[in-house]
Structures are given as C-alpha cells and as structure tokens.
Amino acid sequence: MRVAQDLLGCHLISEVEGAVTAGRIVETEAYGGPEDPASHAAVRSGRTPRNAPMFGPPGTAYLYLSHGVHWCFNVVTGREGEPQAVLIRALEPVAGLEVMTARRGGRAPLASGPGRLAQALGLDGSLNRHPLQRAPVLILGGEPVDPAMVARSGRIGIRQAREQPLRFYLRDHACVSSGPHHPGASPPPPSNKGGSPSGN
C-alpha cells in the first residue's frame, strides 16, 4: 500500500520501438498476495504461468491482458516469492505526445485508465519481468507530491474486494481515470517516498 502512494508523481518512461514516451503517475491501485481476493495471486489461484511475474523480484514489471484485449502495467512490489503489485492506472503525458496519440489512433484521453496507458506507451507482455531501473521501460522519481493532494478510494473495475481503499490518486487531477473520487476521504498513511519500489 505504501508503494502505491509513493509512486504518485514518479515518471514512467518507455523507449519501446525507439520512441520515447513518458508520463507522470497520477493514479495507482495496490494488490496484495494470496490474502487479497482481488489479486491474480489470490489463494484460489496459486502460482500460474500468467501470474508468475508477480512473484518477483521487486521493482520489475508485471503485465497481463485484460479481457483478452487491453494490456495492464504493474510494478511488482513484494519480496521475491511474495506476490504483491501496484497497477499503474493513469499518467499525465509529458513526452512523446505525438507517438502516444498515433498509438491511440487519435483517441483521447491518452493515458487515463490502465488499458489506454499501456497502449500509449507501447507496453505489452514481452516486458514481463523487465527491471524498471533501465530501458526500455523505467520509473524515475519526480517532483515530491504534497500529501494533501493525495486521495484514496476503493478499487475500481473489479468484482471482489473493491471496497478496500487501495486506490490512490492526485486529487482533482484531469488525467485521473473515471471512478469514485472522494475529496473528503481520510488522508493516506505517512509516505516514505524515495528509493526503488520494494514492498507494500
């Protein structure tokens, strides 16, 4: 959960296909291990070829195909063998807008929602297990985020455990994906921003 908050404000950079595209992370969603019924690694599923990248090491990519159509990009956050990950739900585009627009077929928004985000940055399953400290896909720290600007809500787009307040986003940001916005929600727990994603 802490890493899901700490990733806000960081930059996700893609150099896929020789084109640089990037965005500032404005929305995330945390998923735990076997005890989280919404996780791909929930106890009913165990370890499978699909969710194997989720078991680590931390700081690597986990991508899965949603509904057989859209790729979704996650950062693995648990210790190796402990399947935890953070779904990157939305970006504020900051570089390569022409490339992102072309990949999206001219459709807007460019990177609000996990499927649009992956399409705009050219991310797919070939990047599973990729270390996110080096090209072609990496995450770098950005400007510090004022804790007062961070809001949280239940997760969206899932059937189970969606009421758990594990979705973090920048309050009133135009690039946050559609979903429940709770301006009056309790502030998130203290952040330990800095360093590589390693646990939540």
The fraction of residues assigned to DSSP E strands is 25-35%
CATH secondary-structure class: Alpha Beta
The CATH superfamily turns out to be: Methylpurine-DNA glycosylase (MPG)
Structural class: mainly beta
- Percentage of residues in helical conformation: 10-25%
As residue ranges, the low-confidence spans are 181-200
Number of helices: 3
CATH fold assignment: 3-methyladenine DNA Glycosylase, Chain A
- Taken together, the total number of domains comes to 1
What is the number of strand segments?
A: 9
CATH architecture: Roll
- Provide the gyration radius in Å: 15 Å
Distance between the termini: 4 Å
**Mean pLDDT across residues:** 85
The shape is: globular
Largest sheet: 9 strands, antiparallel
Listing every helix as H and every strand as E from the N terminus to the C terminus, the arrangement reads: HEEEEEHHEEEE
Structure description:
- With 200 residues, the protein is mainly beta.
- It has one domain: Roll (3-methyladenine DNA Glycosylase, Chain A), CATH 3.10.300.10.
- The protein has helices at residues 2-6, 97-103, 114-121, and strands spanning 11-14, 21-31, 61-66, 70-76, 85-95, 133-134, 137-140, 150-153, 167-170.
- Strands 1, 2, 3, 4, 5, 6, 7, 8 and 9 form a 9-stranded antiparallel beta sheet that branches.
- The chain is globular, with a radius of gyration of 15 Å.
- Residues 181-200 have low confidence and may be disordered.
